[in-house]
């Protein structure tokens, strides 16, 4: 794979006939590397040449000393880290929350270090115009893709929609009994709304409809489990995952795979950088003779620590016979716009979608299946009852506009409409919580939108972002199972007189209707208009500033000047992801419980999440730190249909995840809140209050 990439960028162009001399080739090579440096740098406009993701660029730096002139990208990244470290609060530590500079002064120094941040003001304009509910609330607990904007939701509630658009844009999801394999092979009858949303999503994510099929599932966990239940682990017996944190979705996949006889393997991450232990992972990927391996589940970046991983691991896995699952749930809306995905096409892609950023994130997950890899899937009775869903309009038929097309609202759609009562929406970290569900549609009181944190209930159980929509699945009837099995086993499809299949006729009819419909997904449109380069630059500036600001907080009157914050994973880095895993420590060096930090932040209208970092490997150099760093987490696993206790070693952490709508003020507010822990009385007082309430749910 690496050889192919190097050849691609050193290959002479055929635009001009004939051979070129060495001078021309050298000049073209320099131009290409300049283009790469520009794409990876701080450009504010989308690159017409195509942009490379940071993990892929890092693979293309040549090892030949003769080509050291092409390491401009590496030098620029190093200079960025040095400039950030030396320019932000030089020789300064903050020992009191009252000593922090005012917001205006902090932004002035921030702008001086990152002058090109001003070029990202378009994102601020979009936020002010379309997401004005974020004015008094800091949302740092979202990852995934939002489909619509807050203003779009309000406008659709306030008045009738424009006649040219398919409305309403806000949907419910209805459970559907279906086999994953049959959905890919034979398609399905989509509603107009579902077809429009699917096409819009695949277009924005640059996923070809000719190469991949999209199946909607209730949530991210359901997508992982559905894939595990449909994958032949009886013959491809390995499941290899690359996660530095505990994931509910990956845990569900592992449990299903283990029941089918799979051997579970995980990558290790070296302490303290939490980088992938390359030697160990390489050995697991290429172990033994080349044969059918199993599933290789790979995220391009850690949702918890922000560490980014090279695309090369996916290429290596494919070359060694693995089926590759790309977990794209932690990526930003435009991170899919990379050359890496056009060269390395994973067999399966999983994404998470929610309705509106900063509000109840009820939505669905998308499981994209490469059509050439669909033959490996098998029919499973369990998989049919897991959580394949259809997207249906949130309003009843009587509430639809007069010009709303009813072509697809046939008997099948009517069945979906009746099943809307089975859909339920759970609470989110950020924003207001729906207080009632009416006819399957979650509605929020206007009063809640004004002050989200005044009515929110914090749950002790940790949810993963994008996994907040749940469905009560109905039982699959025996007739339905037999009917679907017969359809999949049958070598023939009922033919019409003209030789076309019934399914082909239905698909063509639906396609004619669907193409005439449009749906406005402003959330996707906004990210699309900003582009990969602008979003990446914006998040790079804010994230690295926040890391420096947090590291400058130190306890007063301590002999060793104990740091208030410990950050896990990458710190100051050009290509780090927009997620930070950290913990708060008091003046005695004792860790403040992440759950307490999360709840106190929520009282300040700041939404954070918590997680558990694990799979950590300690070298001999850091072996002495192992016992002091690692914590024991007791859980349960299923072995031979019996529940047994399991013990995992890792670190409970607080997580802040930034998105393209995050601005500097959000980062400053988090910094100012964390600085309050410098006051020992603040910590002790809040600890006492937290314990007095017995850690039950707190209304904030």
TrEMBL record:
Superkingdom per UniProt: Eukaryota
Region of interest called Disordered, as start-end residue ranges on this chain: 417-500
Polar residues composition bias: residue spans: 451-471
Protein name listed in UniProt: Molybdenum cofactor sulfurase 3-like
